[in-house]
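Long-time lurker, finally posting.

We've been working with FZ domain-containing protein (Mytilus edulis) and I want a structural starting point before designing mutants. I don't trust myself to interpret raw outputs, so I'm hoping someone here can both generate the structure tokens and explain anything notable. Sequence follows.
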Amino acid sequence: MMALTAILLTFLFFVFKSGVADDSCEEIMLPMCRGLIGYTHTKLPNRFGHKHQRQVYRFLEPIWPFMDRGCSNNLRLFACGLTVPKCTTKGNTTKIELPCKETCFYSKKGCSKDMKSLGMKWPRKLKCKGLKRKKQKNCLKPYPRLKKKRQPIYAYCQKNTFPMCQNLTFDIGTLPNMFHQSRETEILTELEQYQRLADSQCHADLWFLICGVFRPYCIASNPFTLPCRELCEEVRGKCETTYRKLYGGLRWPAKLQCHRYPPASSQHTCVIPRDTALIKTTF
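Top reply, 14 upvotes:
Generated this for you. Predicted structure of FZ domain-containing protein:
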């Protein structure tokens, strides 16, 4: 009897240690979701069998550009809510909430045509079937649908007001950025995701790179100037390992993939920190 008890206790120890029976919520680290969906924690595995957020990242990466384009103001909530569902705890009870069926309907209606125009079909796994109606409660309700698609806000060569982007070589920027983002509150939320990485001091010019990516610099010769690829590669080389440690093993963000940015030898103007050859634009 004692032997059986010992075996049972050993089994339970390894079950809890491995996380199989762990009912706790985990912080959402995904850059396309974090701070942008109205809740902060989730629980995995999800309905697709993803056990780690790095798996969810790979799943959501092709959809991320459409979240930023604004084809539907519900797409981000739906896609994130389906893959990293809302998790809350109260006492010993864990509550999981998925998107409402209407959140799915509005997302699909708003974005299917945009995806098709770019040669992409609505992902088969993003199904509305099996989701609760909003009247049933306990699901992530949709935002009110916009009568017209969200139009970008054009801001050419204006003062950069983001707090982490102050005191850089260039302080004038342009929107929308290359990801079709133009709303400063949304961009600021994404910038704030990198504060932990900046606090690690992995590279002195991290903010110069990130600020130039999310709000391209405006200089005298070009109102839409991106950081040079060489700077991106240098920052990535110094910071990528730290990023993985700080953000739950996630890979280097897609928006900071260095092939997106022109090399210094390119015919397209790019900038590096403390570039004295370029005069700061003032208005």
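Before you design anything, note these points.
Strands lie at 26-27, 41-42, 86-90, 93-97, 155-159, 172-175, 217-219, 222-227, 270-271.
The first helix runs from residue 2 to 18.
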